[in-house]
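Backbones bend. Our protein:
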Amino acid sequence: MAIRRLNAYVVALLLALGLAFQGALPAEACTCMQPDPYAGLVEADGAFVGTLVYVDRNLGPVYDSSTLVDFEFEVEESLKGDIRDTIVVKSAADGASCGFEMPVGQRVGILLDRVSDQWEGNLCWTLDADTLLAAAAGPPPPVSGSPPHLVVSVSMGAAGLVALNRAGEIVGYGRGLPPWLLSVCPDGQTFIGATGNNHVRAWSFANLDEVGEVEIGQGDSYGFSNLICTGNGEFFVLTGGGTGNIPEMTLSHFVSGAGEVVSEVVMHIVPTKTGLLAIGGDGVVHRVDPRTGDLEALTEPLGDIRGQTAAIALSPDEEHLAIATVDWTRDPYVAGIAVADLIDGVWAKMPVGCDVYPAWPDNTQVTFQESCVSEEYMVYTPDLELIGPGENPWPVGYVATAVDETGTRFLVAPYGVDILESGTQSSVPWASLPTYPNQLIVVPDASQEMWLGSDFIPAPPTEVPAATFVEPVPGDAVPIEAESGPASPWLIGLGSAVVAGVFWLLLRRS
């Protein structure tokens, strides 16, 4: 009996220890990406830049990481909402539940929700202070006197396009929805892009004005997979739909708004300097006749790749094409890399550990990780003969890019565009934007000469309202520097008393 009583006391002791010193119950980790500052200012109920001065963590003996606590900020600048000198923001007690994680004294930009009569914020709506200030100021006026070198798809209110000169300065804006799958037309005067499931629009390089629109008419269940301009009013579009692991793909050729189905077996199209390549569901690479849409086979079949393609990479000289595939229908799944010789028509193949992403440092080397757990990149010949360890090709193989006549590669980056100059291994910031860019294209030389400029400037995402009140300061706020952990001082004292009482009971009755 004594042993049984002792076991019960030990259980009680362990529970007391857990209550006293665990503080917060475990929670799953918070996963989110940094918000787009321009879009965030439009969506948020409030926004400000300020410095954290106090955190109130008097939470009681038991709480979980999602419990809301008070964070007090000194406001440097109110950007949206009724906010003045100070503000108290409710946020989860722990970063695991997407609560604030900044230390006292840190300057930060915050986007807010208004819930009942209080402000609430979270880790996912926290930004660099200067980034949020720049977005709130609105897009800068265009610089005059120089033509565009790059056109970038963006989402900045009424503007869906922005033109940048060779110095990375904004020289013009284009109205409308932000397009994706941008493609330069051979006439050198226009470019096209998809702005919805059913629409392809064309713009002029002279001033970024819209000059045409075609409704594809595939219905809401279809989406664009790729889009290639082949002439004035002519383009190929690859659309996909259906359900399950194997999508239904249709390659269509449009001329003057009228479309004709070219193939229902093509899974991917790849633009090249000399035309268009189409990859069939059987892994055959075809050259597409830009006038008729006829397909000319360039390679032998690779095998059934429908619904299995993870990545496609064309070598700089366009003589080899690398494809990464994963068959998710098999258990365990089967992954591989294959490289097509587009001159001789043969494939080199090898198995890999998972869905990897090949990149071509030059015409004679292709590099990739051999598994998802490996941090080492290996370099192979186009015949997939091992050369040895290589450098991480990031971000060349993983983000939207465009290459100009000098070999300089332009890459989309958070809040701007980076450049990777020919012969260098790492990219550097080139242009700053108050939002995330989507797609980008290099402006042809002939188009630069026809630039007329654009006087359209999109409005700022929000206007700063007049402040009408000051948020109250909690009377029992505790400076975060004084905290020794997640538990408050009275909680530690209470826990210690409980532990002492259990020990006394155990000794008295045993």
The first strand starts at residue 24 and ends at 25. The radius of gyration is 29 Å. Residues 209 and 379 are 45 Å apart (CA to CA). Helices lie at 2-21, 37-43, 129-136, 445-449, 489-509.
